[in-house]
UniProtKB/TrEMBL annotation:
Signal peptide limits: 1-34
Its job: Inhibits mammalian alpha-amylases specifically but has no action on plant and microbial alpha-amylases.
Cysteine pairs bridged by disulfides in the record: 43-59, 77-104
Record-linked SMART domains: A_amylase_inhib (SM00783)
An annotated Gene Ontology molecular function: alpha-amylase inhibitor activity
Keywords: Alpha-amylase inhibitor, Disulfide bond, Signal
Gene that this polypeptide is encoded by: aaiE
Name of the protein in question: Alpha-amylase inhibitor
The keyword Cell membrane is annotated on this UniProt entry: no
Length: 110
């Protein structure tokens, strides 16, 4: 191997190693789903469109909810006062529909 090839292949190898380490970190990270609780009360409703998912707290108490999507992704936990609305991502052009709402702990970062 020539000296020039060694100089070129070393940065490529370092970049590949760094990328592999980043991917392992991302796949090993716990999902937000781990911090969700039970299904949200029936008085908490959602209305979805391709752009937005609007969640309304029709309960008499404050609730903390997270939105689950068909691809397994979870929206961050939001605290809703009685009568309050919150806006989350919609299903988009790829059809990532909401599968449900779950209670969550807003202090856990989920």
């Amino acid at each position: 191997m020539t000296n020039l090839m060694k100089q070129i292949s070393r940065p490529i190898a370092l970049t590949a190693t760094a990328a592999a380490g980043l991917l392992m970190t991302l796949t090993a990270a716990p999902s937000a789903m781990a911090d969700t609780g039970s299904p949200a009360p029936e008085c908490v409703e959602y209305f979805q469109s391709w752009r937005y998912t609007n969640v309304h707290n029709g309960c008499g108490d404050t609730v903390s909810v997270a939105v689950e999507y068909t691809n397994g992704q979870w929206a961050p936990c939001r605290v809703l006062q009685p009568g309050e609305w919150a806006t989350f991502a919609g299903y988009g052009t790829d059809g990532n529909y909401v599968t449900g709402l779950r209670t969550c702990d807003p202090t856990s970062g989920a």
